[in-house]
Amino acid sequence: MNFLSAPPLAQPELSEAKIVAQSAHDCLIDEVMTWPKPGLVSHVDSGSHQDMSVSTFIKSASAIEPFFESLYGAGHRNAALSELRRIGLAAERAMLEATNGVNTHRGAIWGLGLLCAAAGWRARYDATMSCGEVVRTVWGDAIRATPVVTTSNGGRVCTQYGVGGARLEAANGFPVVHKIGLATLRSSRRANPTHTEAARVQCCMALIAAVDDTNLLHRGGVEGLRHAQESARAFLSDGGVNVPGWKIRAAAMHADFVARNLSPGGAADGLAMSLFVEKIYALNERF
């Protein structure tokens, strides 16, 4: 089926778009309010980032929330990737204005933005498809055809180290988000239903262990990436958040990452996206 040749559709119910945009915003807040996340900004400290704090992230999340609503609407009317990109670039400008030029959420705008568009599409066409399947099926080819932006840190790292980065993760339907992030959240919640922050930490660690994070490659090269992955794998193999003293071990990892100036920003984005798809699938019956 050529989805992009389908006739234009009416705009969705306003409440639907707002609910999804609010969910995306809330997931960004949940991400930054999670601690300890190795090297990352939280409500406790700024991690490996001297130019930003939790307040920077809160301002940024509020500034970009309206664009998630627009992306939901664009997905609902079956817009092309070029339309989604236009909205995303406007969101980036709003982010930079709100943060005085600090890049807090560029990766999240890309990933969460596509997932918001996918939520709009699946609400109109086929709610049995996952958001990742929608992105892969509807916009995957166009994403692959988009050239790597070598002027960005992520683009340079992808070229230098031969990794796929956020672009190929999106084109493939966010498999890491669904198979690792979402799966870890669900299993952690089943094991400890009342420990919501612990589930988020476990999810973040699982993503650090699995992802060739371009942020880690940018800051620490291959050695930094491998150190981060091995540290996260050791945390998980020792029981993760399911054993006493897990927070002390996670805090020690955090201190180590800060000392090495490592920041797994891709895992932070993946955590927010995993939380988002979890919310969207829970809301499925409402849409």
UniProtKB/TrEMBL annotation:
An example Gene Ontology molecular-function term: triphosphoribosyl-dephospho-CoA synthase activity
GO process annotations (BP): prosthetic group biosynthetic process
Keyword Plastid: no
Enzymatic reactions: 3'-dephospho-CoA + ATP = 2'-(5''-triphospho-alpha-D-ribosyl)-3'-dephospho-CoA + adenine
TM stretches of this protein: none
Keyword RNA-binding set for record: no
Database matches in Pfam families: CitG
Superkingdom in the source lineage: Bacteria
Annotated EC: 2.4.2.52
Keyword terms: ATP-binding, Nucleotide-binding, Transferase
UniProt function note: Involved in the formation of 2-(5''-phosphoribosyl)-3'-dephosphocoenzyme-A, the prosthetic group of the acyl-carrier protein of the malonate decarboxylase.
Family per record: Belongs to the CitG/MdcB family.
Protein's recorded name: Probable 2-(5''-triphosphoribosyl)-3'-dephosphocoenzyme-A synthase
Species of origin: Acetobacter nitrogenifigens DSM 23921 = NBRC 105050
